[in-house]
Amino acid sequence: MYDENMANIKKSSAKSVESSIWADIEKKRFKEAALSCARLNREYPTFASGWHTMSYIAISLNNAAIALDAINRAVELEPDNAEWLLQKANCMLALVRLEEAKKIAVPLSEVKLTTAYQFSTLARIMVRLGLNEKALNLYSRAIALDPDSPGDYYNLATVQRSMGDVDGSEDNLNKCLELNPRDSDAYYLRSILRLQTPVDNHIDELKRLAANGAGSPRDAVNINYALAKELEDVAHYDESFSALETAAGIRRKHIKYRLEGDLLTIEAIKTTFSSEFFEKRTTGSDNSEPIFVLGMPRTGTTLVERILGSHSSIFSAGELNNFAHCLMELAGEVAGKKLGRDELVPLTATLDFKDLGERYIASTRNLVGHTAHFIDKLPINFLYVGLINLALPNAKIINLQRNPMDTCYAVYKSLFKDGYPFSYALEELGSYYVAYDRLMTHWNTVLPGVVHTVNYEDVVADIESEARNLIDCCGLDWQEQCLRFYENKQASTTASATQIRQPVYSSSVGKWRHYERQLQPVANILSAAGIDY
After folding, report:
1. Structure confidence by residue, pLDDT tens digits, 51-82
2. CATH 3.40.50.300 fits 259-500, yes or no
3. Quick check: pTM over 0.85?
4. Which run of H or of E encompasses 237?
């Protein structure tokens, strides 16, 4: 009895200390919380919740390896605790160990979870694993337990959008906004769900929000992008661009970015990977599964992905960051240190390219391998065309091109969650486009015939011919369902998630001309570079 009382006293003391640690966490004081939690775990090493808290802190500090070690201690102490297992799955995701995360997460969906938080956490994990049907069910169960949680309605709406359920998504975004009228992410997502009309839009509401300051800079960005989109839908072009300029200006102000760094890197790539370099090439991996679809964003990469992905021999793996990740990992091992930009590009030319190719293929196995080919549709992979060809000489590389002014306008009006920091200032955008154009010209010169170029306007004008050319480029027999890409049920999380549920349309061709005056800074840069538009 004495031992049991002492154990209870210790547990109570540990909980009290843990409570103060969570107070620090809520204030984002993660380093202070980590020091306190380390002391807690030394003093009460059998208190499983303390190890879970340490894992949460480590994930917040982007240290997934320490987070996994900590949560493993908690799981050893309480193997059946669903909360600990959910955190372990999160750690596996952070470490890109998807198969291990899946082995934890899928069985958890069959056990008796007890709280809305557990259901919604597991739903988020399922989304990361591409198990969207399971995620839909889990979010619905979370909402049934806690119908007043706006975040769950929003998250459910994002999954529904990715799967093409526009009406369901809009209904849940409206429920989210009823509960939390300040959720600017929900306003933005609702606006881009569908084409707004003069009789059915949210323009007045968005104007009121924008006029009232819209809250934080992030909120102002979301609201003004939403307003710009809806005004364009109803052909109020000058008002639309004014809202867009406001949104992009705020976004750019809060991004730490130097265009010169990107331009110097692209120049270094061209200098390093010269014609002479490729004459001395070594043998890479002989794997022929990957199809890289790349180019500037908003040029039709998702459309081409859906056409190809409708073929029975091709799986769409989405926008993978795997190639760059494997490249940095291998370069770091060779260098034995973290490399700066000026050191990285020359070093990549000395790598074991076969090793790089095999690492990349191995890194995709949790997602692919069940069809003859898979698509990696990360637009920015245009930077790595030379390395991709060295590492995976049998891979297909497809570059999307679109009218340069349409491309730049489409990029400028897009609010990207991550990446593309050059897209929020017209001069920077124009200069980056020129650098992209020059780099693709370089790749086509030093690697003739390696890149299959597709023009977005050609796809729109004659989809069957272009679709047949794409399938032929991949060495496959034609299948009619490739023309019915809009019937493809696979989820999409890109900015084109709604559009790719429709047959091909031409309304985006030449859209930049509505803003010819406002886009003059881009036009001047393109003209100076000799780029026709």
Report:
1. 999 999 999 999 999 999 999 999 999 999 99
2. yes
3. yes
4. helix 237-253
